[in-house]
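Researcher: We're teaching a course module on how sequence relates to structure. For the next exercise, students receive a sequence and then see the predicted structure as tokens, so they can try to spot secondary structure elements on their own. Here is the exercise chain.
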Amino acid sequence: MKCGKIRALIDRLQTYKGEVCRFADNPIVPFTNNQAERDLRMVRMKSKVIGTFRSEQGVKDFLLLKSLTSTSAKAGIAAFDALHSLFQGQLALRTE
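Model: And here is the predicted structure for the students to work with:
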């Protein structure tokens, strides 16, 4: 028997209550997944504005630098400092 969208949502929330409310029990877990969406937004915006990258290597380089700056920001390191350390051969990120 087919139920409505609201009933289906209620059923899923009841079934996955532990996962839905995990942020309340574990302070490390963020309330939303917006950070993941923000990390991808720049790539999507770049492809919309410019149209495409000129080469596959350009894509890889862009994503590598984007990943580095995003990860360093999450570790409390300024993007400029992370890039400077990278080019000096001294980059080390904590994995706590």
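Model: If you want an answer key for the exercise: The CA atoms of residues 75 and 94 lie 7 Å apart. The mean pLDDT is 79.
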